[in-house]
Amino acid sequence: MARDSPAWLPAVCSPGMKTTMKALRWVVGILGEALITLGLLVLLFVSWQLWWTDVTANREQAGTIQALERDFGQPGRSPVAPLARLKKVRLGDAFAIVRIPRFGAGYAKPMLEGTDRDTLISGVGHYPGTAMPGQVGNFAVAGHRTTYGRPFHDIDRLKKGDVIVVETKASYIVYAVDRHVIVTPYQMEVVAPVPQHPGVPPAQAWMTMTACHPKFSARQRFVVFAKLVKSIPRAEGLPASFMAVPARAA
Amino acid sequence: MYGPLWRLLPGPWPVKALLSLILVVGVVAVCFVWLFPAIAPLMPFNGNSVHNGP
Asked: Domain with A89 in it: what CATH number?
């Protein structure tokens, strides 16, 4: 028994006290290991959320882009599909590609119908019931600021005049950034047909982008409003000037 | 907790170490594939859309 006693236990300890100390040591040991395990699991979760969701989502979204590009065909070759057909996109289906030169020359993200959790994991989500790309009204979309491929990670770097290209089977719809606001998650007026003016009948084609703000928080929403510049039929192709990456400097 | 687990693993220490590694990889895989995706919706930092009411 004596060799089980740790060196710091005084020699005068009674056998009863030694048993108590042993039990205590056992309990503290188990508790310590459990807490360390819990801590490691939390760290593991953070690395999954911040790193692994980007890895899997980027892979999945790149696959969706390839499928969309195949479906859309080469510019000038595909028959022009009427925009009205876009109204019937089912929830969760990808129907367009978003390209934002400010986010990089190769930036392309799939646009899906719906803004629920599962849809936003797969790309940028279109608010159901809002206008479709190029239509008069507000074409409103939401995207992740962080994690799950973070399509709108750099939404705060968009400047007035920056180009957003929404590519559909029928056309390239080009918007230019107008302004941004930071709102609470319940300020639905940002997706109104005339952004921030609910109830007013629309006369122009707007686009609204929403993402969480600040990064890694869901306390607020960073919202960017863009105005329609031009709808270009797919057959004509997209002028390269629209895809020019703007200079980094402000 | 980990002491008894180590004693439970068969073989000499290199075999025990290898088995431990396989166990750790298995636990991480279960977390990444099933556990974390299941609890992620409960986390408070994943909202990106505007919506009605809290």
From this structure: 2.40.260.10
